[in-house]
Design a protein that fits this description.
single chain; alpha/beta; Aspartate Aminotransferase, domain 2; 3 domains; 17 helices; 15 strands; Aminotransferase class I/classII large domain-containing protein; pyridoxal phosphate
Length: 463
């Protein structure tokens, strides 16, 4: 038995809506059940595409063809995508960055710096290219870089890992996440995530066919609801996915929270996948790696990357650290996703990870200054600002300004104020949980942050 609604929910049918109308449409169907061919149930829980608001965005394939050849005679074809991805649209980060360009808005949405990485790392990449290190690397990484990853992990956690058997170099942490999910999760496996969550988690888990169980972290402190976690985890749980410091909230998981999660994972024989890309941007407490807790290394995959710490997000250099019995699955998936990551950038990344402690101390001081500018400014504008202990993100409550939800608020902020934020409802299985929150980033130069604050002070009015 099929649901007629399932046949109407096509990307092309939503592209003509404004962002707010898309949200209303989405909510009107959010409580409906859609049946796949296998009659397995799933909830529609993704925002429709915002691409209709973007400059030059075609609304159908016909429009795309017409733009190229000047003709309007070609019949449109339905968009085609595998069922595992049919509810996933263009990422919110791409959409908001394009809207920033269209409206000349200051982009405090997507988390990429508007300043460059350190010269000593860039020079190392140039030298590697000049030295002819330009062909395929080993699938699991250049030996020099694997060694550097292991050395840094030992310095940070006290754990000694084998760089040849327990370190896998990936194309950014996003690929490490995908390789981990696809290499270690079977269709039907239950995986617990903490919402709000980085959007690739749900997409890659869906590709793997996982059953996702979500636990919501709520303001003001976004603490883990331990009783709820204890009631959900069981022998049927395959893995728990943790991100600390946490994007988008800036929360850092405390030692107490991690210890309780660890004990329950051991008790139920559950794996832990931990995303630690912001480990060097821990401001108010020490970062704790889950793998370093007693009994946890043997069941943990630790994922990280170069981009956030060295302001080189475009290099896409990441890695996964795990014991050999878990590394095997990660490497099997990695082999058929990208096979190998950029060779010269790995050589340069090895230099970066061996940077003196003074580099990381200066990085933290610089970001603390940027954070102060943004947080103080957001308070002055009239937002309710929630604490951020790590990352370069701040989450605020936008409701003092009278908008129905985060999408409507972000539309107004871009078009009428000239500043971009990210609506956080896209980071929840149930968007209603995040409709009052938006995320700003402070990984921008101080002048940009001050300009954004001034725009909001001038044009954003409380209701």
């Amino acid at each position: 038995m099929s649901n007629p609604l399932a046949h109407t929910l096509k990307p092309s049918s939503l592209l003509g809506f404004s962002i707010s109308k898309q949200l209303q449409f989405k909510r009107s169907i959010n409580n409906s059940t859609v049946y796949t061919r296998s009659n397995s149930r799933r909830r529609i829980s993704h925002y429709p595409s915002l691409m209709a608001s973007l400059p030059g965005a075609p609304t159908t394939e016909k429009d795309a063809v017409s733009i190229q050849n000047g003709s309007t005679q070609i019949e449109p074809r339905p968009l085609q995508v595998a069922k595992r991805l049919e509810n996933f649209k263009t990422t919110i980060f791409t959409q908001m960055s394009m809207l920033a360009i269209k409206h000349g808005a200051i982009n405090l949405g997507q988390g990429f710096p508007n300043f460059d990485g350190p010269e000593f790392v860039k020079e190392a990449a140039i030298q590697a290219i000049k030295d002819g290190k330009n062909q395929y690397a080993r699938g699991y990484g250049v030996a020099e870089f694997n060694d550097a990853v292991a050395a840094r992990f030992r310095k940070d956690t006290g754990l000694v890992v084998d760089p040849e058997k327990e370190v896998t170099v990936t194309t950014g942490c996003t690929e490490a996440i995908a390789a981990t999910m696809l290499g270690l999760i079977n269709p039907g496996d239950e995986v617990i995530v903490f919402a709000p969550f980085y959007d690739s988690y749900q997409a890659t888990l869906s590709m793997a066919g996982a059953k996702i169980r979500s636990i919501t972290l709520r303001p003001p402190d976004f603490a883990v609801p331990i009783d709820q976690f204890r009631s959900i985890i069981s022998k049927n749980t395959r893995a728990v996915l943790i991100n600390t410091p946490h994007n988008p909230t800036g929360k850092m998981f405390s030692r107490e929270e991690l210890s309780i999660i660890a004990s329950l994972c051991i008790e139920n024989d559950v794996l832990v996948f931990t995303d630690e890309v912001y480990d060097k941007l821990a401001f108010e407490m020490d970062h704790i790696s889950m793998a370093s807790l007693p009994g946890m290394y043997e069941r943990t995959v630790t994922m990280n990357s170069l981009g956030k710490t060295f302001s080189l997000t475009g290099w896409k250099i990441g890695w996964a650290i795990a014991p050999p019995h878990l590394t095997w699955g990660v490497r099997q998936a990695h082999s058929f996703l990208t096979f190998a990551t950029s060779t010269p950038m790995q050589w340069a990344a090895a230099v970066a990870l061996r940077a003196p402690d003074s580099y990381f101390e200066e990085l933290k001081r610089d970001y603390l200054a940027k954070k102060a500018i943004l947080v103080e400014g957001l308070h002055a504008v009239g937002f309710k600002v929630f604490p951020s202990s790590g990352t370069y993100f701040v989450v605020v409550d936008h409701t003092p300004f009278g908008f129905e939800n985060d999408i409507a608020f972000c539309e107004h902020l871009i078009k009428e104020v000239g500043v971009v934020a990210i609506p956080t409802s896209v980071f929840y299985l149930n968007p209603e949980d995040g409709k009052n929150l938006v995320r700003f980033t402070f990984c921008k130069d101080e002048e940009t942050l001050r300009s954004a604050v001034e725009r909001m002070k001038e044009k954003l009015k409380r209701k």
